[in-house]
Design goal:
Blueprint (H helix, E strand, L loop, with lengths): L15 H6 L9 E5 L8 E5 L5 H15 L3 E4 L2 E5 L3 H10 L5 E3 L2
Parallel strand pairs: 1-5
Antiparallel strand pairs: 1-2, 2-4, 3-4
Length: 105
């Protein structure tokens, strides 16, 4: 049968997906930036560097979206929240114990 390129096991017995679930995605340097590039002029606040797993990022995103009253998504280990909410998000992340800094734009 076919083998997984990551772990070398058969695809039916692959353990790569389970390892990735518990993997911490960020580097610990939390940065909150504003982006408009490639979004047809729409502003998005991007949070990078959070030392959390994918499940923890999703839970944090839900709380932050509620705080800002807007939508958002998790993409490649970063949080994207619609609109420019940098100041509010930095305050909320600092309150939660992260050393967050505002950067960009």
């Amino acid at each position: 049968g076919r083998l997984c390129p990551g772990c070398g096991q058969a695809l039916s017995a692959c353990v790569c997906a389970e390892k990735a679930k518990g993997q911490i995605l960020g580097d610990g340097k939390v940065r909150v930036a504003r982006q408009t590039a490639g979004r047809k002029g729409k502003t998005v606040t991007v949070i990078t560097g959070l030392p959390l797993t994918a499940a923890e990022l999703a839970a944090l995103l839900k709380d932050l979206k509620k705080t800002c009253g807007s939508g958002g998504a998790v993409k490649d280990g970063t949080l994207e929240i619609q609109g420019d909410h940098r100041d509010r998000l930095v305050q909320e992340l600092v309150k939660r114990g992260y050393a967050a800094k505002k950067s960009g734009g």
